[in-house]
Design brief:
This protein has helices spanning 16-26, 57-68, 85-95, 118-130, 159-183; strands at 2-8, 32-37, 71-75, 104-109, 134-142. The chain is of the alpha/beta class and 184 residues long. It has one domain (2-183): Rossmann fold, CATH 3.40.50. Residues 3-138 form the NADPH-dependent FMN reductase-like domain.
């Protein structure tokens, strides 16, 4: 059975990106299990001296979740013109492992700002390419999500936005099938 590890690049309580991830989990196609990563703020700062056995337990858990996932799905804000440090830190912990190699990966860029968080997603692609993740272009969507479209339950309510998130997920799920058949 396939599962998708879903990561919000925000540590802010009630963030739009976390709402996008929660909405995507709700929209997950049948036969695919969403696994929402909630420990972004708990990872130690990356230090190459720590990237050896015994690894910090939070890093062991992160790498296990990535290794066991069929794909990765992210949504992240932009801070100071680039990817937030917490998400970059998470990705730096993946460089020493091979868990992301050939892992189908997609995202929803939910920014409503004029620059559309271009710096975040450009740097995200660079880092994911560096770790040999398989970025699925059809599963990477720019879907502006105004805070007003999010209900009190933290889920996106707007049908058009939900449809676009679902479309990105569907493209990611379609990419999982060939990747899983190569492993077998």
């Amino acid at each position: 059975m396939a599962n998708i590890l879903m990561i919000s690049g925000s540590v802010r309580h009630g963030s739009v990106n976390s709402s996008v991830i929660a909405t995507a989990a709700e929209l997950m196609p049948n036969g695919v299990t969403p696994v929402i990563y909630t420990c972004l703020a708990d990872l130690p700062h990356f230090n190459p001296d720590l990237d050896r056995e015994p690894l910090p337990q939070s890093v062991v858990e992160l790498r296990r979740l990535i290794a066991e996932s069929s794909a990765l799905f992210l949504s992240s804000p932009e801070y100071a013109g680039a990817m937030p440090g917490a998400l970059k830190n998470l990705l730096e912990w993946t460089v020493g492992g091979t868990e992301t190699t050939d892992k189908p990966t997609g995202w929803v860029n939910s920014s409503t700002m004029p620059n559309r968080a271009a710096g975040t997603y450009a740097s995200l692609r660079i880092v994911l390419d560096y770790t040999d993740a398989s970025v699925i272009d059809q599963a990477c969507a720019d879907v502006p999500v105004p805070r007003s479209s999010i209900g009190e339950d933290g889920i996106v309510q707007d049908a058009a936005i939900r449809s676009e998130i679902s479309h990105a997920l569907t493209a990611l799920v379609l990419a999982i099938r060939p990747a899983e058949s190569r492993v077998q």
